[in-house]
Specification:
10 strands, binds adenosine-5'-triphosphate, 10 helices, 2 domains
């Protein structure tokens, strides 16, 4: 079954066409990655799916057309976005950040917060600390936890590796892989193409608003053209 099915999606800002006739799908249980350079339109694509910007085209989520729904209605259906730059509440504590996310959750019980702390012991240790004083990696874990508390069936992540040290990036990708292995479908947007593809089932490439690919992530990892343009020297 297709968890997410997008057809002819377009996003424009005045004369700038950020997403052009995009087609993309995520099957139930898959981890799908969209790689591409800075400014290629990846964030615009994710924000359109989440209902955070104006867009045209068809978006189906779990078999239901959602293009006309507001962002919070999409979240209620089980679609969560961890935005680029994290957007946590810096002056609130870790616990308060989680409580705010929990207000809108399906059950709003303390069990969900306890689950987060069991998965991320570092957040448990720092639960009374102000979020702004967390390290970059801890802030990203908090942002991810806020999305997970809503128990999404599709988790979308916008550049989770941004600004993190390489060791923390590796941990973050491992956590994303585990979340997916536990049954949550994932759509991941990343400039860190090699690492993202190494945990993905399938991958797309975004270039100046146009999506291509959609095949096996391992095949993309071996693609010489991608090596030169997106994998860097490492
Ligand atoms: P990045 O990794 O830098 O976020 P991206 O691949 O996510 O890049 P987008 O942020 O989606 O790319 O931007 C796609 C294009 O749309 C860029 O040319 C950008 O300048 C433009 N753009 C994005 N947001 C707006 C906006 N609110 N108003 C006008 N133009 C925008």
């Amino acid at each position: 079954m297709k968890m997410l099915d997008i057809q002819e999606l377009n996003v424009r800002y005045g004369v700038v066409r950020a997403v052009l006739d995009a087609h993309l799908h995520v099957n139930d249980g898959e981890l799908v990655v969209v790689v591409g350079a800075n400014g290629a339109g990846k964030s615009s694509l994710l924000r359109a799916i989440a209902g955070l910007n104006k867009h045209r085209g068809q978006i189906e989520f779990a078999g239901k057309a959602i293009s006309g729904l507001r962002a919070e209605q999409r979240v209620k259906l089980g679609l969560s976005l961890v935005p680029e730059g994290r957007h946590i509440f810096g002056r609130m504590s870790v616990l308060e950040n989680l409580q705010v996310a929990n207000w809108g959750s399906r059950t709003n019980s303390n069990a969900e917060i306890a689950d987060v702390f069991a998965r991320f012991p570092r957040l448990d240790e720092r639960k009374h600390q102000t979020a702004a004083t967390l390290s970059g990696g801890e802030q990203q874990m908090l942002a991810l936890s806020r999305a997970l508390i809503r128990q999404p069936s599709l988790l979308m992540l916008d550049e989770p590796s941004m600004g993190l040290a390489p060791k923390i990036v590796a941990q973050m990708f491992e956590i994303i892989r585990e979340i997916n292995a536990a049954g949550t479908s994932v759509l991941l947007i990343e400039q860190n193409a090699r690492m993202a593809l190494s945990i993905a089932n399938r991958g797309y490439l975004m270039e100046t608003g146009t999506l291509s690919g959609g095949g096996d992530a391992r095949v993309m990892l071996d693609d010489e053209r991608l090596h030169e343009a997106y994998f860097g020297k490492s």
